[in-house]
Structure formats: C-alpha cells, structure tokens
Design goal:
1025 residues; alpha+beta; five-stranded mixed β-sheet; 23 helices; 36 strands
Amino acid sequence: MDIGSQYRITAQALFILVFLLGFSNVISASDQRLKPIVNGALELQINSYTDEQIAIFNRRFASLESIFGNTQTFLTVVERTESITDVASSVTCELLPDACSTDEILNLISDLEPFSDENGGYRSIEVLSDNLIKQVIFLDEADTFQNERSGLVFRAFFKQFLSRQVRSAKPIPKWWTDGQEEYLTKTLVASMGLGEPFGEFHKRITSEIAGRVIDQVPLDVTEANYIDVSISGIMQLVHDYGMKAVFIDFYEQYSSTSSWDKAFEQIFAIDKSKFATSLELATRGGLDLSLLREPNDLVDSLEEPWRLDELSARRLFNLAPFQLMASLPHTVIEGCSAFHQFMMESHEFGDFNGDGYQDLIFTLNENVTTTLENCSFPMRVFAVYGAEGSKTPEVVVVDNNQLGARDTVVADINNDGADDLLVAGANHRSEGYPANSPSISGINLYLGSEAGLVKTTIENQSELNLGDMTAEFTTYGDIDGDQVPEFFLFGTGAGHSWPKPLLIDCDETCIARHPAGFDAATYPKYTSISVYNGALVDLDQDNDLDILMNIEVEPNAIVDEPFVSKRYAHAAFYQTGGQFDTTSPVEVDMGFRLDENTIVPIPEDPETGRIVDTNAAHYWESEAVDLLGDDEVEFVTLENNSFHITNPRYLISIYSRDSVTEKFTLSQYQPEDTGAVHDQNFQFRDLDGDSRLDIVSTLNPGSSYDDGIALHRNLNPGWSLSTKKFSSFMSENNCNRIYTPDLDADGNLDVILTCPRADALEIYYGKNMLLADRDNDSIPDINDTYPLISIGSLIDTDSDGAPNDCDQVCINIGMSADTDDDGDGVSDSNDSLPLDPNNDTDDDGIANNVDAYPENSLYSKDSDSDGMPDAWETKYGLDPNDASDASSDQDNDGVTALDEFLAGTIPSGSLDIDGNAQYDALTDGLLLLRGMFGLDGDALITGTVASDAAYTTSVDIESRIATLGDLADIDGNGEIDALTDGLLTLRYLFGLEGDTLINGVVASDATRTSADTIETHLKALMPAL
C-alpha cells in the first residue's frame, strides 16, 4: 500500500493543530489522552463549564473547522517527564491504527522536537485522510499560565490554517499573517469567554497605537514593525469588506493569481500602498478601532448567510457595528435601598409619532426591594423612535413613574394616525406589605403625537382604582363596532375577588369603563381562578368580538357551578347585540399544544403546597391575524407553562377555524418548538414576498447566549424554523434582551440590545445594512419597479418587480405588465424569446433573431444580405443595398471586400503597395515613405518595386498610396507625416514591436500613442494575402 498516496503529512514546530499518528507503547489508547480541541482547551481553564456550554462551543468550532479547510482538530498535553515521540506514537495509533507504524509517519514523529525551558509552547502534526485534514496539537504542560494555555491551542489552529495557504513562489507579508493570526485567535477566544473580551481587544489596540502616534514612530502597516499596527490593518479590512473577503475569499484569489499583491488588489480594489497610506492617515487622525468591531458571531461573519437566496433568520441580518445609543442610570429614591436588577418586562412595536418609521417601546423593572421598607420603586417606559436611514434612532424616557409595568398593548385608539400605548402593572401586594404602603401597580395611557408618546389622563367610570390595580394582560380590538379599536384588559385590586373586564376608549376624552352588559351584582366572585391572558376574537362568527380568556382553576378554587372541565382551559364571555353576558364564563374547547406535553415537570418546592400539572398551559401573547392571505383569520398565541413548573416550554400555537364546526381548533401544522424561552412578543411579516405572513420571535438569550431571534417561515402547508444570534457581543456585554424593529422603514429588521451594567442600562443599536426592500418581496428597492408593492405570487422572470402579465387584480393594486420580461434590453415585441435573457448575445439591444450579427455589438443590420454590415459598407464607400459589391476589390490587393470585412481589414487600402502579395519593408515600406515625403515619378519607384510586383509604374503606385487615404495617418493626429506615420509603418514592416516601434516617432498630438494601439491599426492594413 502506498501510504504517501493516502496521507499528506506536514509537521510544524511551533504550532498545534493536527491529527496524530503512531503506535502504542508507553501510553495506552484506553487512557484517551487525545481530546477534541474544545474539550481539551476548556479543561485547561480554571473556570468550569456546563455540559450545555461545552456542547455549544463544540458545535460552533465544528463549523469553523469546516470553513477553514474541512479539518478535525485534537489536543494532548505533554508532561515534561514524557517523551513527545512516545506520546505522538500512542495518540497516532488512537486515530489511525492502520497507518501509524509506517516509515513515513514514524519519521514525521521522530522530527518532533522535545519540550524544554528554552523551547516550550507546542508542536503539531497534520494528516490528510479521506479528504479530511486531521490535526493534533501537542501542548507543553509547563508552559505559561493555565488559562493562557487554552489561548495558545486556538492560536495554533489558526496558525496552521494560515500556513496551509502559503505558496512558496508567492510569499505573504509578515504583517498580514501576524495580524490575521492575532485577530482570529482573539475573536474565537473572546466568543468562548476564555480571554480578553473582543471589544476590549479593539480598545486596547486603539490605545497602543495612539501611544505610537505620540511617539511619532512609522505606522506603515506594510512595514510590519508593530503587531498592533498589523492588527489594525486587519480590523479595517474586516470592517470595510467583511471577514469572508479577508479570511476566505482572499486565499481563493491568492491561489489563482501571480502574487499576494495582485490578490490584495483584486479582492479589495486598492493596491497595498494606497491602503497603507489611507490607514496611516486615519490612524494619525485618531482612528477608534472599537467602532469597527464586527457585530456578528464568527461563523456568520465568515459564511455571510445574508448573501444566500434561501430565506432564513441568518439571512435577514447584516448589521453595521453596534453603536451605544444610551446609558440609563439606576433610579435612586431617598430613604429606600434596593438591589438593582434590570429586568425587561414587555415591549411593543408601533409608529408613535406618525412619521412612517417603526418605533420600539419597552418597560424596565430595575429594583428588587423588601416589603418592610414601605417603598414603591416605579418602573420606567422607554421609546426608541425610528428615523430615516442616515439618522440614528433616538432613545427617550417616556415615563419614570409607571407602577408594575408588566404588560403593554399598542393600537391607534383615537384614530389620529399615531399609535397609542397602554401600560398595565401586574405587581401583587403580598401579605407582608403594610396596610398603608403605597401602590405598586397601576395602568397608564400614552397617546401618540408628533412629539411622540404623551401620558394622558383617563376618566375612570369603572369599579377599579386605575392607580392601584393589577392586570395580567392587555389587548385591543373594536369591541363596539365603530371601526376604531379599544384597549382591553382584566383588572383586579383591593376588594375585588376575581378580575373584571375593562376597556379604554378615546373620543373627545379617554374613558375607562366596563363593557356593555357588565353587571357588578351578577359578576362572578371566584377565588383561586387565574385569568392569565386573553383576546378579543369573533368566536361565534356573528360579526362582533367576544372576550376569550385563558384561565387556570386551581384545585382549591371556590366555584358554585364548575364552568370548565379542565384545570387549564379557555373560557369566554360572548357578545350578542352589543351586550356581553358576564354572569358566568362559558368553556371554549380549543385545547392547548401543551395538552399533549410528555415532558414530566420538575415539582415546585414542597413547602408551597402547589400541585404541578404536566399539561399546564397559558399564553403571554395573542393576536388574530390572516397568516395565509386568504381573508381567513387565524388566532396565534405564545403558549407556555412557565408559571407552573420549573422546566418550562414555550410554543407558538396557531388556531384556525374548522371548516365543519366553524370553531377555532389547533391547526394541523404548528411552528416548531425552539427549545428556548421566548420573549413576550412576536411579529408577523411577509419576509419572502409570497403574500403569506412569517413569524419573527425574539428569545431570551439564556446563560449560554445561544438563543436570539427565531424565524418561523410560512410554507403553507407547514413551517420551517431557523435562528440567528449575536452570542459574542451579547455575552461580552451581558445583554439580556434583543429586539428587532424596522427603525428606518427600509423593509429590513434592525437590532436593539439592552445590556445591564452595575450602575446603568446600556442600549445598543445595530443598523441592518441589507439593501432596502420595503415591500419584502426579496427584490431590493433599487431594482424594483414597484418598491412598495410586493410581486407576491406573480411571475417576474427578470426580478425587476414588474410581472410578466398583469390581470385586472394586478392593475387594481397599481401594477402593469413588464414590457421586457427577461430584462435583456430587448422589448418583448422585438424579442423572439421574451423569457430568455440570453437572446441578445452581444448586448446591443437587438435580439438575436433580428440581429444580423448577434455576436458583434457594433453591427446589427445587413440590408442586401451580402454578409457585410450596412454601417461598415457605408463607412468604406460601398453600397449597403448592392450585394454584388461583396466581391469587389477597391484597393486591388487581391482580397475581396467581404473577405476584408471577415478578416477585420480595410477594403479600400493595403500596405501591399506594389501588389506582389507580400508585405516588405524595403519595397512597400519605402514606397509609402517616399510618397509621404512628396516624391513622385521615377524618384518614387526607382529601386523600390519588387521584381514580381503587379503594379510597377509610378502612376499605379501613387494611386495605391492614395487609396489608403486617412488610414495612412498611423498615429491618428489628423496629419500624414513621413517622420511619424512613415517611419512607424517602415519599422513595423521590419518586425519591430513595443517601445522599439514607437520610440521617438509618435507625434506629440497623436491620438494613438501606445504600441498596442499603433500595432492594431497597422495590422488592419495588412489583410491575409
């Protein structure tokens, strides 16, 4: 067996990333000392990691191995008392038992240098087996500090990748490899929390370079004098062109070009010197590298999924570096102490100032205090107001004094074109609170205006105290049928045993009242029955909204007559004739997805006495929406069991009307379980222009920061799940929430992050840099004929936003049919293949079927069908309507006009002046030169006419020269001159080329000045003979 043909092996002292080979002698394979690189590196850390974290890191690193050359990397630590060759032999046989004892591999192992105080660090071996690069890193156990050793491991991985790219004939500058190695290592190590945070890395390099600026040292990155300057060059390139271009695309270009310099210029469209100069100028001007920090995770940055065609959560986001929008300090109340803990309670999207840009509001709960302090820490309401793309959105504190801001709802309830906001508290005063303690929960109304949200007084016509009440949920709907929505909630407070329905309506004033039909005397007085959520939905299809409740009837509930059959159930108050019957709710048999939960709940603390239920279910959010674009409303909820058990699940549940019973039931197709904790909101957007609504939900990042944004793509039937995360940035900055508004109204989701600090809440903004696509039909506005009208399911062959055909429905929405369906520049009326964009091969705007010269953009018409274009015939004095002139020979050079055209030569002139079918400097060249000097008669021809010439008299020769006309103006300056044009011709006929041809004989006002253009012109005067 030829081992060399199956394995390619390289050893690299000083680096650690490769697979091993050997036999087992000192250390047995059963010791399993060879570990996957991530596991081995984490074991070198002082900190401990959970199994979940280790699995996440391994998954991410496996993606990197695939990106950087289809590798598989292992690590082993070598003690100073061990022989590195013995260790290498042992682990080699673990990995390649059939090949570890070959001479070639044994020789490779024998080349590994032993570790010593003078020569520590790491060693590596690399093997190519079955198209997989296996790498083993040997780490000196005595080297450096424990946590730093894990960094060395990953540095070796990237060093080995870079070394594989080098071609000996095309050296790579040291600044480039040093900067890339450092940047990649720091990126990966920071993403795993194993070293310097990535943002701090950028700040440190900025600071170090600032010191060099002060010291007035040379800062040319190409000189590679300082590692920090090299790193800054890589940071700038990554910011300007992306990681994929810098670390992946560059090396593909480098492998196929003549040099590193050439590859650099082709990938980045700038030569290295100009780049170095611009970087140095920016550096000396105070360049802040922290503003260039890559926002995406490493794998996303290297793969650039936003360039793919298939819709996914990762494709939706290509962010500019996150920028700090605001830092909001803690609330301090004199006399009250508290443990500050920023908790984001609720958020909504809307246009609160009516400017056409989407805004974001969120509520902030920042204090945890004891019941004995008699303190009431208010929550705060913030708004992020969107703006056009060139402006940064604005963060505004809407209210510093909202009590218990648990839930929010948005709608335009006063019909003024700006969205309004209701914030409801859900804090419950426990028995430990003194009787005279202030309120800790209430509701507030904020009306939209040109200036944004404004807190508004509510006229209270209800039984509830709006300033001292709780509400578990809020929603909206047009309860009274006046085409304007109202806010709705269930509220309770002191003296109220069971939550009461409450609506808020705004006409001249804003009024809080109970819905029509509510009767306090007959309203139920249940205890131990919780109303978790609800919605306003037309359950019985009588064209009015009913009140749907999501409830739990606890085992100790006091109910005169049980009205539901399950502990967790749906119930409703139905509206009839504009009145609600609120005497007793009626069970609605809709079911929950968690009714079939098979995951056994972890019991709560036995001291609470609470009995958990496997099928516990309630929902945080709900909305009635037409998901399929068929004018049929679906009811969508964010279902979970987080209030009931300690291992909760979160599911988006969809209810649709049964075609037989016309009742809402769980749909056959449901979005996939993300396995994560969902935030209390979701968005419905048609993200792929198919007229069906997709669902975007943000996720609680969790302790591992492996969750972020979930996209449930509507496939109809069915759904597909994909996710996107910003783990590196969010973990580094301790961010606890992610929001996805479209702040600049360009059709792309932007990102807002909230990140608690010890004394403040920081808010970061990531602008989406994808091309604007306001109708979300995957056609960028710059290419979209109708940028505000989605192409939907209409056929659009050339993806220009205009449909091939447009029926009346299409016309009614503002479109018309495309006049060039394939976008080839040929109108459909002139295009024999109107759906074939390749039907105009020469891109001259004339379809191949009507183009006499479909592969020549200069010509398209041949009126007499003689094979010569009309324009060419007219230019050279031929008749475009006379086919017989194709056989003519105006210049009597023995070549017909048609053959001259096909050869690319001139029909009216040739440098074969004497007509002997040869081009000769000593005859034709001298004849032309003498003619240009003005000689005629015998002075022209004596001694310069070939013995076999066809033209021998001076009259004939003069006629031949005259036939050339302006074509004899070789340098194109408008004059025929013996000392320029004549000498150029003579030199060319002598066989001179390049600089030798043109030196000293091109006129100062010439239009043809290069050897290439001169040679091209002369060649055209020399048709094949």
